[in-house]
Amino acid sequence: MNVNIMNVDYSTKIPNNVNLAEDRQVLKALEGWHPGYMDWWGDMGPEGFQESLVYLRTAYSVDPRGWAKFDYVRMPEYRWGILLAPEEENRVIPFGEDYGKPAWQEVPGEHRAMLRRLIVIQGDTEPASVEQQRHLGKTAPSLYDMRNLFQVNVEEGRHLWAMVYLLQKYFGRDGREEADDLLRRRSGDADSPRMLGAFNEATPDWLSFFMFTYFTDRDGKMQLHSLAQSGFDPLSRTCRFMLTEEAHHMFVGETGITRVVQRTCDAMQEAGITDPTDIAKVRALGVIDLPTIQKKLNLHYSLSLDLFGSEVSTNAANAFNAGIKGRYKETTIDDDHQLKNSTYPVMKLVDGQIKMVDEPALTALNMRLRDDYTQDCVKGMLRWNKVISTAGFNYKLAVPSTVFHRQIGEFKDVHATPDGLLIDNATWAKRKNEWLPSTEDGDFIASLMKPVTEPGEFASWISAPKVGIDNKPGDFEYVRIES
Ligand SMILES: [Fe+2]
Ligand SMILES: [Fe+2]
Q: What is the 23 CA–ligand 2 centroid distance (Å)?
């Protein structure tokens, strides 16, 4: 591996390992974009705490053995950089019609529009989540959690930079226009919303934040994995490095929910409650009852499934054929990597019934990626259920059926229970509050969202983490609010 690419140049205004100092035109375009980004961060980044010192990690290298440095930083002074994973020597296009040919270092003309569209869609999600989470700092359950929120936020900001670099370096004038538009759209805005549904939903409280980082960032992980396979090598290298950061976001979600569940179980045990569905009794303890956690899970999981698009999709087939977007772990799959004759089972609505139907594997790529995603989701959830069973409670958190609460794909026009039983509109209207968070549920959770800013202290509804960030002790001051 090349040493220059491993270490990041911090001498330019925009830290990078892509030799921007000698790429004047792109450096100029990025420097031109920078003030707009800072304005966006000021307007739409975390509310308050911009002067606080936050114990953040910053990437200084792309060496997987050690790439981050931790230190106190004011968020607006965070060094957002352009970091690509090291080039793999003699990399070939790992799938599609050009399978086995050398990976592209420049945009192949015939795939330009498709490639730009995929980069813009990925790019659009990054600032969107920052916007959705901007108000959460004020109700953080601890300084530890506040720090994790801000870490996720600055890294999503960096992911936006990553996509903007690709647009400005490889797509000329329309790339620059797309880069500007990424700062113009706003999550949930009526006139100019973000591009994907889940990124226009509110993240009203910290339980939502943990669900979002668990379920929605994990969609991001799957998309990044597929793009990391891309025959367009700069995109592949960009996504590979983003994935190292993304792992922490999902860690925040997974451990966040684990700690909420832990605290609820501890409180129920201490109070001698044996029925975890006795919601009133559990809530009186100042913790979030398991059935409400399940409802939040139902909501975030179903919204995240929508991000995979239609089960059967010619767009997905085209992107695969073109060598632009591959499958999860493409290079480890043992087949022709062209999907010439294979099929894949797709869950469909046939004459009002749910059936598995074999579809050409090429057009079923979204379904396949979504299945991989569900498997990945279920793995981490075993830990949550372990906490519940270890505490001696008879309750299990589970992902709802794919058919439940969908707005995109095969099942968007029907209603179903979390078990996947089709129901009519009237039943749905009557019962949906049993399965999705109601206004009362939201109000109850909101009532718990009181900030805790004493080092080492945690809100009533969440337990302390097992280990600190960067191995810091339990009472470490992760955010120096007044500085
Ligand atoms: Fe991201
Ligand atoms: Fe993320």
A: 29
Bridge partners (DSSP) of residue 82 are 16
* Residue in the structure block whose two tokens are 């409280």: 205
The number of helices, as runs of H, and strands, as runs of E, in the chain is: 14, 7
CA distances from 340 to 281, 335, 451 (A): 58, 10, 56
Token pair of 413, please? 């026009």
Whole-number Å distance between alpha carbons of 220 and 217: 5
> Residue 421 corresponds to which amino acid?
L
In this predicted structure, the answer to whether residue 88 has a pLDDT above a threshold of 70 is yes
User: Checking DSSP bridges between strand 415-416 and strand 53-59, what pairing results, if any?
Assistant: unpaired
pLDDT averaged over the chain? 96
In the numeric block, the tokens 């990626």 are attached to: 369
Instruction: Report DSSP state, residue 467.
Output: S
Exposed/middle/buried for residue 243 (C-beta within 10 Å: 0-12, 13-18, 19+): middle
Per-residue pLDDT of 367-417, as tens digits, reads 999 999 999 999 989 999 999 999 999 999 999 999 999 999 999 999 999
Ligand 2 centroid, distance to 22 Cα (angstroms): 30
Helix (H) or strand (E) holding 356: strand 353-360
CA 322 / ligand 2 centre spacing (Å): 27
Q: Report how far ligand 2's centroid is from the alpha carbon of 213 (Å).
A: 7
69 touches 51 (CB < 8 A): no
Residue 4 confidence (pLDDT): 57
**Coil, strand or helix at 104:** strand
pLDDT at res. 380: 87
What SS3 string covers 420-459?
CCEECHHHHHHHHHHHCCCHHHHHHHHHHCCCCCCCCCCC
- Closest-CA residue to 301 (of 226, 384, 243): 384
73: phi then psi, degrees, rounded to nearest 5: -140, 140
| CB distance 356 to 419 below 8 Å | no
Please answer whether residues 102 and 332 qualify as being in contact, where contact means their C-beta atoms are separated by less than 8 angstroms.
no
**Using CA atoms, how far apart are residues 90 and 103, in angstroms rounded to an integer?**
8
Write down the pTM of the prediction. 0.96
In DSSP terms, 136 is beta-bridged to none
Q: 199: closest CA among 115, 122, 147, 313?
A: 122
Kindly list the protein residues that place their beta carbon closer than 5 angstroms to ligand 1, a single-atom ion: 126, 156, 159
Locate all alpha helices (DSSP H) within 272-400, ordered by sequence.
Answer: 279-283, 290-306, 314-321, 365-390
Residues in the chain: 483
Phi, psi of 182 (to 5 degrees): -65, -25
